[in-house]
Amino acid sequence: MGxxxxxxxxxxxxxxxxxxxxxxxxxxxxxxxxxxTIEPNVGLVDVPDSRMDKLAELVxxxxxxxxxxxxxxxAGLVKGASKGEGLGNKFLANIREVDAIIHVVRCFEDENxxxxxxxxxxxxxxxxxxxxxxxxxxxxxxxxxxxxDKLARTGDAKIRAELEVLKRCHxxxxxxxxxxxxxxxxxxxxxxxxxxxLTEKPVLYVANVDEASMHTGNKxxxxxxxxxxxxxxxxxxxxxxxxxxxSEMEDPADKELFMEEYKMKEPALNRxxxxxxxxxxxxxxxxxxxxxxxxxxxxxxxxAPQAASVIHTDFEKGFIKAEVIxxxxxxxxxxxxxxxxxxxxxxxxxxxxxxxxDVMHFRFNV
Length: 366
Hints:
Layout: E1 4-8, H1 15-22, E2 41-46, H2 50-59, E3 63-65, E4 68-73, H3 88-96, E5 100-107, H4 122-152, H5 157-174, H6 186-192, E6 203-209, H7 219-227, E7 235-238, H8 240-248, H9 252-261, H10 268-279, E8 282-288, E9 292-299, H11 304-309, H12 313-317, E10 319-325, H13 327-333, H14 336-341, E11 346-348, E12 359-364
Parallel strand pairs: 1-4, 1-5, 3-9, 5-6, 6-7
Antiparallel strand pairs: 2-4, 8-9, 10-11, 10-12
Helix pairs in contact: 1-8, 4-5
């Protein structure tokens, strides 16, 4: 599955530093001036999952393959981006292509890091980004609203219903609110699906704090958390520079010592990546054999044939059945053979809803 999360924020809040830390396939230039990032940097990020490591300890495969998310480092937005300021149209188009947004907000003071917006104010910074995305969405909705209004005069019930959804979206955006906060049912979401609205995308906030606040947060991160509490959005508090340093260490022992020095059990990036994964309503199932133990990404609620399709489309087309072992059973009994002998290997059909952590083998015929 090709899934993307885009890192956004004002210039010089730590977006590219965060990207450098999370990406294991590309490094973004991080510099102290506006529009350092013009073309979006793209990297693949492994999703940390201790379950895969435990399966590998039992199976002893030739290799392990974690599931991944594509992370896009999008250039800093500025006030007026919705009208083309600061290459705004290009940047907004890049955001339109991602599935979720990681919004980095500056929550630290440092006179050596350029800031044109005045005193540190995470709420104002967040609102600048929100406003630009809302204005762009308002323009998008306006254009479809005009077309749909003319078509609705024919009396088509479906088009009239679509018109009402567009009117609700328009009114919501005019109030300075994001579409993701508007309660729409599945049919109403379909009515605006072709618009790829920016403010409909789920958001995870990163409060980039100073070193002294990386465990406790500070007044700026607390203000951000208070501001977004009604969005049902998670705020990850972290120091992007520390995370970048950890990610550059190749020796696991060095990395462990460094984290001990900062009293860290794991990199905050692990929490960020896992949270991004959950933000997209994703789940993981595993295949486990001597050749490889591999994690596969699916959407929560997918049935067995859909889950099989991420391995190969032929698996879905010719799906016969799935052999399924619950992760906890596999760990408890120690092998597929032991699970089979204990009656813990189940045969499931096309209607089986895959559970997060299932260890699966598909039978198919094409």
